[in-house]
Automatic annotation (TrEMBL), chain A:
<feature type="coiled-coil region">
    <location>
        <begin position="203"/>
        <end position="233"/>
    </location>
</feature>
<dbReference type="GO" id="GO:0009279">
    <property type="term" value="C:cell outer membrane"/>
</dbReference>
<dbReference type="InterPro" id="IPR037066">
    <property type="entry name" value="Plug_dom_sf"/>
</dbReference>
<keyword id="KW-1134">Transmembrane beta strand</keyword>
<feature type="domain" description="TonB-dependent receptor plug">
    <location>
        <begin position="259"/>
        <end position="335"/>
    </location>
</feature>
<dbReference type="Pfam" id="PF13715">
    <property type="entry name" value="CarbopepD_reg_2"/>
</dbReference>
<keyword id="KW-0732">Signal</keyword>
<dbReference type="GO" id="GO:0044718">
    <property type="term" value="P:siderophore transmembrane transport"/>
</dbReference>
<dbReference type="InterPro" id="IPR008969">
    <property type="entry name" value="CarboxyPept-like_regulatory"/>
</dbReference>
UniProtKB/TrEMBL annotation, chain B:
<dbReference type="Pfam" id="PF14054">
    <property type="entry name" value="DUF4249"/>
</dbReference>
<dbReference type="InterPro" id="IPR025345">
    <property type="entry name" value="DUF4249"/>
</dbReference>
<protein>
    <submittedName>
        <fullName>Uncharacterized protein DUF4249</fullName>
    </submittedName>
</protein>
Amino acid sequence: MQLNDRGQMIFPGSTLLYKNSGSCPAGISRLFMMSVLKVVLLVWAVLHAAETKAQQQEDVKISLNIDHLPLKEVLRRIESLTPFKFMGKAEDIEKEKDITLHLKEEPVIKALEAILLKRNFQLKRMGKNIILKKGQGKNVLSGTVKSAKTGETILNATISVLNSTSRTSSNEYGFYSLRLAQGQFDVVISAIGYRSKTENINLEQDLNLNILLEEEVKELEEVTITSENSQRNLLSPQMGVERLSMKEVKNIPVLFGEKDILKTIQLLPGIKSAGDGNSGFYVRGGGSDQNLILLDEAPVYNASHLLGFFSAFNSDAIKNVTVYKGGMPANYGGRLSSVVDIKMNDGNSKKFGLSGGIGLIASRINIEGPIQKDQSSFLFSARRTYADLFLKLSPDSNLRKIRLYFYDINAKANYIFGDKDRLYLSGYFGHDALERGKKTGIDWGNTTATLRWNHLFGPKLFSNTSLIFSNYQYQNNVNGDGNNYNIFSQIRDWNLKEEMQWNVSPKNALSFGFNVIHHTIKPGEISSVGEDKSLSTTSLAWRYAFDNALFVSNVWKPSEKFNLTYGLRLSSFAILGKGPYYDIDGNGKILDTLNYGPGQLVKNYLNLEPRVAASYQLNEWSSVKASYGRNTQNMHLISNSTSSSPTDKWLASTNNIKPEIADQWSVGYYRDLKDHKYELSIESYYKDLKNQIDYRNGADIFTNKPIETQLLYGIGRSYGIEFQLKKKTGRLTGWISYTLSKSERKIDGINNNQWYNARQDRTHDIAIVAIYALNEKWTLSANWVFYTGDAVTFPNGKYKVDDDVYFYYTNKNAYRLPNYHRLDLGATRQLRKRKNYSSELTFSLYNAYGHQNPYQTDFRRGKFNHNITEAVEYSFFRFIPSVSYNFKF
Amino acid sequence: MKNSVLNYGFICLLSAVFYSCQKLAKVKLDAASQAYVIEGVITDQPSDCKVFISQTKAFGDNNAFIGISGATVTIENKGLVVPLQEVKKGVYSTNAITGLSGQTYKLNVNIEGHLFTASSTMPKAVAPEKIYAEKENIGKNKFITVVYQDPPETDNYYRWVQYVNQKKELTIFVANDEFNNGTRASNVLNFRNDISPDLKVGDTVRIDMLSIDAAVYKYWASLRQTGSGSGVSASPSNPVSNIQGGCLGYFSAHTLRKSDPLIIK
């Protein structure tokens, strides 16, 4: 993709010159681009009309030539030529000398205002009287928030001015920028897991203030919370967002004691587990492929290990996760349901450190240290499971032949060039193997690499440029019916992303940029291998596409109570040759095959995605918010099984498979209780889904024939209400969340074209999480979850064919698995804590009261009595204890 | 094939590492209104044209399925309409017609005014070259492998029926030639021992090899995948029938070749 089109624009009603350096996706005319920008301009113009009008008061046009005169003399001259009278503090006016003003039938007050503004005066008109006030100029306070102990940047720290409504948060690189009136004040900086800090500053000019926060030791005494250091921003229009840092979740008990950020987010309202012990999840009724999972900006296509029982992310290397369930900012796109933005640690820039852990399932090691002392650092983190090592000890020779493991490596380095530039290089490499003998097995893995450049164009303009590589690949050798087959899938992305954050004025914060992704996809090619060499295996064509987007978004704060974010994302998905594409009728029959040459445009899907969010603060402790957003998705995971399966296919949109589209409306009410110690959130949403995809009944999934012949398309809807009560400080922390929701699909050709429950439709979903700091040594934790069983299809009858009994189905997903509930317990014992060494033991018990939670029900002819039929439920985990030892040098 | 991959994955995991359990469950199932089930077969062997007609039953009922009497059943080929006689309750047959490869046969069924029609084209016959028993890759059980020569043209579909000691083993075995067209192909008849016991030394095994058309293949493949009651499939559904008129079942015109019997050693 070339950077071939550039647009320049001037915002009406302001003197801002805004140069847009975005790239234009293939196939979009410059005209179209301009019209998109015009829409943005129009919104801007309407919203700012009020401000502009105030400036258009009557003025008097005169001609005037003044060179190097004191202000006093200038004012006297103007008074003699016009009806205006000036007032002001004499000492202020006498200080101003050397004023030059040349006018030729021009509005005099406007010109004077322009000159005096630079000298920090404000002009106030009262009819013919003009009051000059030595003003309060505005300056920018900016800097980076970091941990005092490790030098890690701190995301989403709150920077607020005591006794004022001015506040902001640090961005995903720890950078913040706040425009304030000149003067002296106390700035409070707070972040979860860190001790709040108050800095007294005297702002006379733009100020760079880098802040170091001390880590919070176990908080045994209650901390006083004020609205300034309360950790959420009631006024931010962003809703549907959940942020968790590894610090917060490290004590929550998990399966096998393997800390897992993707399992922990399933305890949040609106986010549901894809199954017992599974790291897959559903957000607000969407499918598990509708979550955009980003690791340091790089999309990870299969974020799980070992058939989904572990997430791909090693908790040692993770700093923080932000989940957007709705109202996604315009810089994110490409998935319908959510964005899970995971940031890796940067590494300790203060000193070298070695930490690790030994668990039942896996061991971990983590090395980090400074590159430039106090400035830049590196990190290397790895883990591997060793289930297969135990299998080797098994007396059963079949088990000894099983290879079953995964490992992953996270590495990151950053380097600082002067005050304004920081370069990051981060990478992830994960690999899974599940093999039996040599001929049968599954191997898969993700590789991502991100090269990122943060640049400050000034205290107000922050730029982040990323070049990202992402590769997901799996190879599956199947011994099917005596023949050996190989299933091969790959998605390889090259991705360039530019994002600018511009603190335009105290009232406006603009962000804009572009994203260009080139996809190369092989969606599950089957070939036969081994002795039975096939003569005529048809290979599956590689698919190529450019997935581009332009985005612009502005946060507008017109008043102390009302904030509005409005933005637009223009996405373009250009499908390119070479390869065959098909003309397919409604019955899945191929009518025509069209062969495209290399680079030839097959189809370009353009979508405009508006994103709007508003907030209104009712009082110091409560606010209401509303948002609307559209998302589109061009990468689809097609699955026909209840868990992740080797035959699941990632497909790109084609001429037949259209982009999935979701429109989401949501409203919310937020209230801090008991002096901001408790946070209550209530959000409700409605989501409308288009171009949803499913397999036809009886689809042949083991084929290289065009997949579109096996697919059906339809619509969906989901809606719900989510409640969460959270306590973030004190000895006892945790939350209670409850979701009441519905998710349905309607697909032509399924369920007689009637609405049916999506499998992940769960009416009730409750999670209670509690962490209690007992004393310096012990931390106890527990969580309890309950949810309505999955919507499943059960038979309504049976019949005989070919002497055997088969089952008769009438309604899709009309039944439910039994309700799911589970209690997990955990305890952490701090063993030794010295300056240079600390260690701890973590115990956990998963499914503490051993409730059997079925994940699957089979129907079959009676095992002992062949004359009846019976239902059999399968369940996984009961009473899974674990212990792990973690150390840190 | 897909199921075998999945089962393999899960069995590996569950048996080796994790604790898992199964139990009989009481599931409340609503009885749907009954539907007709038609099973029609014509082969290239003499006296092998039969149609079975029955109905669905509620899940909780026993497995004795009762035939439907009084239907009018005909098979039509090249304008010649052959009526089938009811020889047993719900079983209709004729000796007047024997199938031929390349011919299209049309089934007409009238059950109390409900009309059902289907057509099926009999493919070229393919015979098993040999069968042998072999221990599976891993595990102790022996399974039968069928060896056959796939014809050079594409789109051949097969079904095998296994008889152990003269008794039909009920697993559905089907294959197509998408990945081995024109080769000397082999297929392992791998079955679960849920109902049929494992093969043991001294058992006599014989195989019927059926060449079926694409629609009938689709029926068996989808029955095996989504109609067998397994909860692995996210979307259990009725198999894709080639009979028009809204009933369950299939109509298959296929060739039939028998293997020699094999005694397991």
